[in-house]
Amino acid sequence: MFFAALQNALDINVILLTALGSLAGVLIGALPGLSVTMATALLVSLTFSWSMEYALAMIIGVYCGGVFGGSISAVLLNIPGAPAAICTGFDGYPLAKQGKASMALGLARIGSFIGGLVGVFFLALFAPPISSIALSFGPFEYLGLIALGLITIGNLSEGSFIKAILAGLCGLLLSTVGMDPVYGIPRFTFGSMHLLSGIGLIPSLIGFFGLSEVIVQMRTPSNKHQIIDQMGKVIPKMKTFIKMIPVILRSSVIGAWIGALPGVGGTIASFLAYDNAKKTVKNPTQPFGKGAYEGVVAPEVANNAMVGGAMIPLLTLGIPGDAVTAVMMGAFIVHGLQPGPMMMINSADLFWYIIILFILANFLFLFIGLFVTKYFTRVLSVRPETLMPIVSVLCFVGAYAIRNSMIDIIIMVGAGLLGYFFKQIKFPVGPVVIGLVLGGMADGELRRVSMISEGNILGMLITRPIAIVIFLFALLQVLDQIGAFKRWRKRAGLKIFGVFRKSFTGSSGRKD
Amino acid sequence: MKNFRKSILIGVLVLLTAGFAFAAGQQEANVDAYPEREIEAVITWGAGGLTDNIARNFLPLMEEELGGASIVPQNKTGASGAVGSQYVMSQAADGYTVLITTTESCGVWNVMGTSDMDVNDFTPVMILTGLNPSCYVREDAPWNTIEELVADAKSRPGKIISGYAAPGSLGHVSGLLFSKYSESEFNMVPFGGGGKVMAALLGGHVEVAFNPLVSTIGNFQAGKIKILSTFTNEEIVDGVPALGSEIPAFKEVMPYGIMVMMMVHKDTPKAIVDKLANAAVKASATPTWKAFCDKYYLEIIAKTGNDFQKAVDAWKPLTTWLLYDAGVATKSPEEFNIARD
């Protein structure tokens, strides 16, 4: 079966299409305002009349390349190409400002590559068991994860915990706009039909990061901007790399597992991985938030591992793990397949073919990415007077392109102005967008938890071990903010976060 | 130089204005030559979803019947289909913009308070297919027949957890319909998407759900779920009883489902509407389409004109009153002259 699939895949057309898809994905992901989800949706139309093999090659190429591509604009312009790349910019952009953009992009590229392969590894060998465990995650467990995510927001920026949480709360407030998930009653829509679907994530992302950055740059005197990039250095020294292996492994596990939970997605995976890296790496190459190599690698590994993870529920149960896999499911149906457990039983060849395509796509974007980043880093040497107008046009185009709606442009501009204001008062912007992403999910899960338990939330919670563990973890994060508690915990030997490090490197990682 | 630039600017403005005027003039379409250019088909649901798949498989067949015309599908989602429909309403009534949507969106906007628009604000072309839900439970659930489920639900009202996708969705209304006519109460919980409902059911977080066959058949064939019955009067899946024949109270309201329909702007000339309808009906009769619908358990309806109107008018009362009685619809169907069934 595997070899039949391999034969199919070694068709030169398939390789070329995957390469084309990877290139297109990287470019689309890199341009602020264009998103992989949108590209994949367009691809369904484009590939409708192609054979299933060719259509999948292109779609998978775009998916893998696109997730990596989002990191390019995050690093170079501090404008993430997708919500999953927000954390990449936290350390990637400072690195670029230090003249090490090539290194940052190289780290993102290699991290994405490794994460992608680990994700495929899980998909290929452990799909059924991962899928069963993922199914046992119900509303209580999802709520726990989201609560964990919400609290983790506080740790994301190097600034104060409180400011980040406040920013996150703004995001939560914005997420309430739209239709109530249970009754469909419009909230804060001011009678506008377009706001019924809520405040769009992509226009907000483009606005908060993109347009606000444009305004910031345009208000800064131009002589501060010329950065000469150390072009030669694209990969880190072997020693540094080896020290990062535990972070890479942990982040890929986080990414793959979160991907396997339908509906959770790459954003949460990437920032849980970033937070984990922040907590477990005691001596980062540079401080986190100022250019730590680990801070670029962790989220990129996680968001590409998520890709493989998201395919698990799709291929084992016919349930898409995220927006792109939902479109892929449509592509399956369009080509006459019936996604679901039977699909893999009836078409095992296809399963291995998909695995091979993913492996191929990861290798392809590794190399294509190298060439692409060489050209993209030149962006840094373009004067802001020229670059920023181009970026702002891309912002407008990107916001409109999602659903051809003027409301999205208004949201984008509003977010841009609000983001600029936030930057002026030194509030972090990332948490707002993450709050926006998590808010809707939190609302839905909390309502579900309440309905299922008929109001007796705690009573039912204590019967669910996984949920209890997750909530305790989240509680721990809050309590850790209290200095006294943290010191007590460490003295009591409850070194919960460092557990994995010992097993992988055999040392505590500290310079003793 | 300044004068030169000025004259260029004026020249460009003149050209643009002339261009607009020219484009506006294009609206006077020649009915006999229709279609002369690309037709845009606006699908009000997302790429990859059920409606999208049905539309994308149907349109190429219709293109052939229209003499090789080009129909380009475009997804315009939002507000349960109101955004896409609004767009079609705002385009010229020349038959070059077609709307593909479902009854559970445009049929209930008025009572749900989503929009003032309604099916009657458009001219019907054809009802493509029907999607009939099925009632399903996990493979190891304690009920083997629909009667057992109903009996259990009656003995402990509101305790059995039933999942649905979103307020007003097919799964939701089916669940409400089921409760009403079997006189049983469930604890109904929304999950935000059909896929998530299936995941929740397989994981044991909900016990019953209602979804179209196309979404459940995969897991049914793999033996992971039991389909207790379909919302029809006759058996359409081997071994799965029809609700209408199992529980007499349901006979009068079966078959129930939603319909995927194609409509155009209200003021589109009748000749163009007829051309579209004829092409659609012919496309519906092709073996390719039949095979597709058989595979995915879609009921081919293919009603046009008055039949279309009657089918939709018959569908509305049941659904809107169910939603209103459940407290999901904020406006009473009476406001819109929809009498109780």
Q: Would you write up a description of this structure?
A:
The complex is a heterodimer of chains A (512) and B (341). Chain A is mostly helical. Chain A has one domain. Chain A has a two-stranded antiparallel sheet. In chain A, α3 runs parallel beside α14, α4 crosses α5 and α5 runs antiparallel to α6. Chain A is globular and about 60 Å long. The N and C termini of chain A lie far apart (52 Å). With 341 residues, chain B is an alpha/beta fold. Chain B folds into two domains: 173 residues, D-Maltodextrin-Binding Protein, domain 2 (3-Layer(aba) Sandwich); 121 residues, Periplasmic binding protein-like II (D-Maltodextrin-Binding Protein, domain 2, 3-Layer(aba) Sandwich), CATH 3.40.190.10. In chain B, 43% of the residues lie in helices and 19% in strands. Chain B is built from 13 helices and eleven strands. Chain B has a six-stranded mixed beta sheet with strand order 2-1-3-10-4-11, sandwiched between helices. Chain B has a five-stranded mixed beta sheet with strand order 7-6-8-5-9. In chain B, β1, α2 and β2 form a beta-alpha-beta unit. At the A-B interface, α3, α14, α15 and α19 of A face α2, α3, β7, α8 and α9 of B.
Large-scale geometry of chain A: globular
Mean pLDDT of chain B: 86
- Number of discrete domains of chain B: 2
Question: Per the principal axes of the C-alpha atoms, what is the gross shape of chain B?
Answer: elongated
Give the termini separation of chain B.
76 Å
Chain pair with largest interface: A-B, 56 and 58 residues
- Count of alpha/pi helices of chain B: 13
SSE arrangement of chain A, N to C = HHHHHHHHEEHHHHHHHHHHHHHHH
Which sequence of SSEs, written as H and E, runs from N to C of chain B?
A: HEHEHEHHEEHEHEHEHEHEHHEH
Which percent band covers the strand fraction of chain A?
under 5%
* CATH level 4 superfamily of the largest domain in chain B: Bordetella uptake gene, domain 1
How many beta strands in the DSSP annotation of chain B?
11
Q: Classify the helix fraction of chain A into a percent range.
A: over 70%
Described by strand count, sense and barrel closure, the largest sheet of chain A is: 2 strands, antiparallel
Put simply, the count of helices of chain A is 23
Count of spatially separate domains of chain A: 1
